[in-house]
Amino acid sequence: MEDQKNKPVTAEVEQRLDDIFGLEDDDGTDFMEDADFIEEDTGSDDPPSTFTGSILDEDSPLRDLKGIVLSLDWEITDENMNRFLEEVELLKIKFQGEKIPRMYLQILDSVGKYIRKRKVRSHPESIRLLSSAYKSFEKALMNPETPKAEKRKALYKEITKLKLLKEKIGREKSEHIPPRAPEEAPQMPPTEPEAAPPSTPGMKAPVPAHEAFAYALEEIKQVIKSEFQAIRAELKLWREDKQ
Amino acid sequence: MQYTLGQTQLDTIEEILQSDVMDLGVTCVVLIDMSGNIIAHLDTGEIHHDIYSLAALAAGNFGAVSAMAKIIGEEEFSLLFHKGTKENIHFSKVMDDFLLVTIFGKAVSLGFLRMKVAEAIGKIQNILQD
Amino acid sequence: MAFVNMKKKEIQVKIVYYGPGRGGKTTNLEYIYGRFNERIKTEMVTIKTHGDRTLFFDFLPFDIGKIKGYDVRIQLYTVPGQVKYNATRRLVLRGVDGIVFVADSMAIRKEKNILSLKNLEENLTAYKKSIHQMPVVLQYNKRDLAEQGIPLLSYETLEETLNSKLKAAAFPASAISGKNVVTTMKKIIALTMASLEKQLS
């Protein structure tokens, strides 16, 4: 019985193989005519802002941050992200009086906090932004001879990317939950693009002390404002969950 | 271990791979068994790699690397990744019988990919164990 | 175990060419690839050492079209024959559906043939498989060397030492000239497909 069942498949297979490989294979019957040789043993049997050293130097301000950013390239964990944000905080203090570094650090802080919070839900572009913002920051710091206007231009580029990303995230989120208000307030505190003017070649003079203070104060206000917004939204969500 | 995957399971696996991995912007993702057979395959449609040979080699490679790990006293390696100039390739085990192979370019961060792949694998494991 | 994709209606069948080092396993595949490249339209993958010995495996896949509504893809593999590559041989044997044992007809290789066959049985056991329950074809390769006066084992001796228990189909061959290469391949594919049909039903 089984033979009959098998026959069709075998026949089909054999026919197919003949079609592909032809019937011209030699059957090698001439080998059967070999003389019986005696079995002889013939023995023959693939690294402030005016740092001028290398970034990897011990006293380079970015040495530690660079190391952490490189490790984030390989693996994103809570531990890595915490180390990153801690280092950013340290550098914020170090670069207290310096606008451009502070702005970069603010971007890195915002994006870092977003990624730490959202983890695997982070928007893929946020990681890219972290990397590009860091690179731009490093370039600005390690090349003191670059004109300030050019540095501001590069910084503004990163700020714009951040803005666009936030808009994108906001848009995508509202697409997912149309009728209700967005679940969470924008995760990232704004980095006051308005306070950072685009490159204007005319602005060469250093900012007066009282203006710098006002500016820093504005920065702080914005950060506090957005943090409160985030907390309010979370509370709202928590209340809704409890109902 | 013998597996029989129904159409629904395969469809779900493909959906997971699309949303969790392909949507990151990777070039190609292939789920194979350890003999080198392809179970699911998604790509951007722009590449024409010989994925059958790739699968055979990936399985062989993974097997060889696993054998090496045991020789040096490791159960297995947690990161298997080859970096190219334009394209890179990442391997991740799915239970003991399958391998997820991802090909991706510079635009995708390895660290982020690893997070997403781990999540996708968790979901796929649930399906395979059903 | 043959891989069956119900969704795409595809079957992938794995056939491994096994045998002692320098016995002609790779030559079998190279012959098939060289001769039928135009028709089968796939590439052969070889992972070799600088000395042209198989390091990992050779791999030649091709489609044989639809059989009973399923697209059948045949995957021919060879293993490295040298004793030191046993771990690799075991890897390559994983999921095998049919085996061609390529024996070296040279008289001096008698022991190596026997050891290699024993090694095959051991490696199959690691996967809880038995050579007696698998599609197997024997090939007694290098028969052409008789013309050069090199002492060969007779067909009968080979049968006695390698095939007395297996009782598998056996073909004398010359892989380098192609004699019985395709016959061997056709036989193993047919046997494997028949066995697969039995298992699936």
Short structural description:
The complex is a heterotrimer of chains A (about 240), B (about 130) and C (about 200). With about 240 residues, chain A is mostly helical. Helices cover about 60% and strands about 0% of the residues of chain A.
Question: Overview of this structure, please?
Answer:
The complex is a heterotrimer of chains A (243), B (130) and C (201). Chain A has 243 residues and is an all-alpha fold. Chain A has helices at residues 2-21, 63-74, 78-94, 99-118, 124-142, 148-176, 209-242. The radius of gyration of chain A is 33 Å and the shape is extended. Chain B has a single domain (7-129), classed as Dynein light chain 2a, cytoplasmic (Beta-Lactamase), CATH 3.30.450.30. Chain B has a five-stranded antiparallel beta sheet with strand order 2-1-5-4-3, with helices on both faces. In chain B, α1 (7-20) runs antiparallel to α3 (110-129). Chain C has 201 residues and is an alpha/beta fold. Chain C has a single domain (3-200), classed as 3-Layer(aba) Sandwich (Rossmann fold), CATH 3.40.50.300. Chain C is built from five helices and eight strands. The longest helix of chain C has 20 residues, at 181-200. The radius of gyration of chain C is 16 Å and the shape is globular. The mean pLDDT of chain C is 92.
Give the helix tally of chain A.
7
Given helix and strand content, the structural type of chain B is alpha+beta
Please provide the ordered H/E string of secondary-structure elements of chain A. Answer: HHHHHHH
Contiguous uncertain segments of 5+ residues of chain B: none
Give the terminus-to-terminus CA distance of chain B: 14 Å
Order of helices and strands of chain B: HEEHEEEH
Relative helix content of chain B = 40-55%
Shape of chain A: extended
How much of the sequence lies in strands of chain A comes to under 5%
* Class by SSE composition of chain A: mainly alpha
